[in-house]
Design brief:
heterotrimer, A mainly alpha (249), B alpha/beta (210), C mainly alpha (238), A: 249 residues, mainly alpha, globular, B: 210 residues, alpha/beta, Rossmann fold, 2 domains, 3-stranded antiparallel β-sheet
């Protein structure tokens, strides 16, 4: 298969529907295994933090959800470019399917951040660099969600959201930098891809497992939503009718 | 009737090949194939909701969800909204159009052509709907594009105004331009080709009418 | 049948790109002056909101002065938002917007002219009015010049980024609140550097870096936003 053929096939909802059933199953099961392992390991077996005691264990939820929320927005920016430039239907579906997931993960990160902040800083909310960035990210997600709902025609709504997602992605690094510059009283980032983490391995390994798990969960969730979107949008086509008649969805 | 495209030395101003457009899982129109040559008028007919306006917007490139291919010459569009700014005078509106279209701003000539001479410095919000419509027609009279796409050009016009549209179209055709016109009332130009769009049905171009 | 020759299709015509820019500039200027009350409303709002702030704080000079930079910038953001609501609305309703997108060759020339006038009557006007607003907020006189500089450098980004949001919502019946939700998160960096620079300068710190940042954001917005605006307008006109 040449690259061009692959590109065309990627744009075909029908082809994607056919291959994605098993993919979703694999991703979902992997996510389940990883998340259970990481969470049990983190909560029951990882050593307590020498300063924060047991309250630090909320990072096993907080950090993975924050990571995946940011990645999901980047993915939407990429999908937006693909939709605007190549008009690929699947990209619009990725955009539509990612918003609710990303929005809930951002909310979860903010909520766990607040719950962690209370014992650590003595306040539910502190205007520090990363919580503020996450709050702005939540607003960016809400804007996409509201814009899609406000425009009646799905194709038009998709393209409008693509423009907004692209502009938002260009803005995110600037927002992050500006917020960092103004409000820096947070501890340095837990994960650095380049430098070795300061935590002992028995503390950060479960975090890594959970982070991988939540990405797999994102993948499974995305694929599942895409499949529903495909059925909904293609319900008039022959192949969906055939599958419906055969009862093999 | 001017030749059907293939053997003719002139390039068509509008070419549709298998054009189709779907909305909410039903075809508004499909498999439209047509060449429109200089000097030809195409009348789009059909009931409300049959896709006449949508077809015009597809031709303009304002509606990207269609199948098939099309090539369109440089065109002027007169839509439901008149395209006349109410806070500007007739002359200011037309001068702006001349700049956009890249043609000389013969404001007095264009206004005279549509029977609005002397209204140069009247702000358009003080005009009636029919007069504003005439200002919109005046920008057709400015010229600049070989293909005109008109969406219900007779709306809000009195009998004299409707005659004016007919005269403008006939003049443009005689000068080697082409016109696509979506309309409920036939323009009354004998050489018009007609295309009937039907709700949901597969529309076939009616071809040249005698 | 003998046919008189059709006028040649417009290449650049007698006007060209500069002429197109000038024509649009003139049109926007005249239209803004003819709806002067509408044009001035956001500026009146700026003063009204400052008054409300002072009343809320109880006219305490020290409390106001401490937060003057932040209050000023937040209110400029909101006033800009009010101007954006009207940016494309009238042209959308009367059909001239679709003509501009269809006929403008290239369309970003008239769009840029439109945004330039919009900025002159919002960002630039507020820069000029900043000393008066600053006086009401007891902003120390020695940072007044800097305050104007931050507004001059930062406000183009507000107009440009906000125009994208305005273009996306112009076709919607109740687009006002949505416009705020779309635009305000994009304004965050400008607000941080603008208000931050003023309060740092009040503490006696050099803020050249923050001014450069404001300029950089405006320049980036100038390169990206016009194209995003055109894409968004075409989407709204579908």
């Amino acid at each position: 298969m040449t690259l061009k053929e692959l590109w065309h096939r990627l744009g075909s909802p029908r082809w994607f529907y056919q291959i994605s059933g098993r993919l979703r199953l694999v991703l979902g099961l992997t996510a389940l295994v990883l998340l259970v392992t990481g969470t049990v390991w983190g909560i029951a077996f990882a050593p307590p933090d020498y300063q924060q005691g047991n309250s630090f264990r909320i990072i096993y939820v907080h950090v993975p959800s924050a990571l995946v929320a940011q990645s999901a927005y980047l993915l939407m920016g990429a999908a937006g470019v693909v939709l605007l430039v190549w008009r690929m239907k699947l990209a619009d579906m990725v955009l539509a399917a990612t918003v609710p997931f990303g929005m809930s993960m951002t909310a979860l990160a903010l909520f766990t951040g607040a719950a962690w902040g209370k014992p650590t800083w003595g306040a539910w909310w502190v205007w520090d660099a990363r919580t503020t960035s996450m709050l702005v990210l939540l607003f960016l997600y809400m804007a996409l969600y509201a814009l899609r709902q406000a425009i009646p025609r799905p194709e038009t709504a998709g393209r409008a959201c693509a423009v907004l997602a692209v502009v938002g992605v260009i803005n995110i690094p600037i927002i992050k930098y500006s917020v960092d510059w103004w409000l820096t009283l947070h501890q340095p980032a837990t994960f650095r891809l380049t430098a070795a983490p300061a935590m002992p391995p028995e503390m950060w390994l479960p975090l890594l497992v959970n982070a991988l798990g939540v990405y797999c969960f994102f993948g499974a969730n995305l694929v599942g939503r895409l499949r529903l979107e495909i059925l909904e949008r293609e319900r008039g086509t022959a192949w969906v009718r055939e599958r419906l008649a055969g009862g093999q969805l | 009737m001017a030749g059907a495209g293939q053997g003719s030395p002139v390039a068509p101003l509008l070419r549709l090949d298998g054009l189709g457009c779907q909305r909410d899982e039903r075809w508004l129109f499909r498999d439209l194939t047509l060449d429109l040559n200089p000097g030809e008028l195409l009348q789009l007919e059909g009931p409300n909701g049959s896709g006449k306006s949508t077809l015009l917007r597809v031709l303009l490139g304002l509606y990207p969800d269609f199948t098939g291919t099309l090539s369109v010459a440089e065109c002027l569009y007169l839509g439901h909204r008149p395209g006349v700014s109410a806070v500007l005078t007739a002359a200011e509106n037309l001068r702006w159009y001349a700049a956009l279209q890249g043609v000389p701003a013969d404001v007095a000539g264009a206004l005279e052509r549509v029977g609005m001479a002397g209204y140069e410095n009247v702000v358009c919000q003080h005009m009636s709907a029919g007069q504003q419509r005439r200002i919109a027609l005046a920008r057709l009279a400015l010229g600049g594009a070989p293909l005109w796409l008109l969406d219900e050009p007779l709306t809000a016009l009195d009998t004299a105004g409707q005659d004016l549209v007919r005269a403008l179209v006939a003049e443009h055709l005689a000068a080697g331009g082409a016109v696509v016109c979506a309309t409920h009332q036939p323009l009354g130009i004998a050489t018009a080709r007609r295309m009937v769009l039907g709700a949901g049905a597969r529309a076939v171009p009616a071809g040249a009418e005698p | 049948m003998s046919r008189p020759p059709l006028p040649p299709p417009s290449q650049t015509g007698p006007v060209g790109v500069a002429g197109l820019f000038a024509a649009q500039l003139g049109r926007e200027w005249v239209a803004s002056l003819r709806t002067l009350a509408e044009t001035l409303n956001p500026l009146v709002f700026l003063f009204l909101a400052v008054t409300l702030f002072a009343l809320g704080v109880g006219g305490d000079a020290e409390a106001l002065a401490n937060q003057a930079g932040a209050i000023l910038w937040v209110l400029v953001l909101l006033a800009t938002l009010l101007t954006l609501e009207a940016l494309f609305r009238r042209d959308y309703d009367d059909g001239t917007l679709e003509q501009l997108v269809l006929l403008g060759k290239p369309a970003f020339v008239p769009i840029l002219a439109k945004l330039a006038v919009q900025w002159a009557l919002s960002g630039l006007a507020m820069t000029v009015l900043a000393p008066a607003v600053g006086m009401l907020l007891f902003l120390p006189a020695e940072v007044l010049g800097l305050t104007m500089l931050t507004l001059l450098a930062g406000s183009p980004a507000l107009t440009l980024l906000g125009a994208v949001a305005a273009a996306l919502t112009v076709g919607l019946r109740r687009g006002g609140v949505l416009l705020a939700l779309l635009a305000l998160p994009l304004f965050v960096p400008t607000l941080i550097f603008g208000a931050g620079a003023i309060s740092l300068a009040m503490a006696g710190v050099d803020v050249t870096g923050q001014l450069y940042w404001l300029l950089a954001i405006s320049v980036l917005a100038l390169t990206v936003a016009p194209f995003a605006v055109i894409a968004a307008l075409r989407i709204s006109l579908e």
